[in-house]
C-alpha cells in the first residue's frame, strides 16, 4: 500500500482552531447587535412627548376655533344660511306647472322639427316627465296633461304656447328676487 491519500485531488484548506466558545461568542454578538437595532427602531417609532408650551398653544387654538364656530352658529350670517324661500302661493304653484309643460312642449316641437314626426313619449323627446304626461292626438297634434297636487292643467298643441305660459315665467322670477 502506498502512503498517498485516497483522493489525491482533494485539498482541504488548513483549519484554524476556533477558540473555545468562539462560535457561541459570535452568535451572542450577532444577537446583541440585532437586539440593539430593534430597540433603536422602537425608540424611533415611539411618540415624542409634546413640549408644554406647544400643548398650551394647541389648546388655545382649539378653544378659539370652538368659540368662533359657536358665534357663527348663533349669529347665522347671510353667507352661511340659505335665503328663505317664500311660501308658494296658488298662483306660483300654477305658474311652475305651466312652465314645466311649456318646456315639455318645446322639447316635443324640437323633436318634431328634427325628425318629421311626433315622439312616441316625452322621454324620447328628451322632456322631463315630472308632473307632465303626453298624448299624441293624430298628425302633428298632441295634448299635454299637467298634474301637481290637486291642480290639473291641459295644453293642446293647436293653442299658442306663449298664451298658455302667460306671465308664469315673470311670477317665478320675481319670487326669487325678494
Task: Describe it.
The chain has a domain of about 90 residues. The mean pLDDT is about 80. The longest helix is centred in the middle third of the chain and has 26 residues. The protein is elongated, with a radius of gyration of 44 Å. Helices cover about 50% and strands about 10% of the residues. It is built from six helices and three strands; from the N terminus they run H-H-H-H-E-E-E-H-H. The chain is mostly helical. It has a three-stranded antiparallel sheet with strand order 1-2-3, covered by helices on one side.
What string, H for helix and E for strand, traces the elements in order? HHHHEEEHH
Number of strands: 3
The helix count comes to: 6
Q: How is the largest sheet built, in terms of strand order?
A: 1-2-3
Q: Main beta sheet: strand number and arrangement?
A: 3 strands, antiparallel
The Cα radius of gyration reads 44 Å
Q: What general form does the structure show?
A: elongated
Which spans of ≥5 residues are poorly predicted at pLDDT below 50?
Answer: none
Strand residue content = 5-15%
Q: Estimate the helix proportion, in percent.
A: 40-55%
Mean pLDDT: 82
Distance between the termini: 125 Å
Q: State the secondary-structure class.
A: mainly alpha
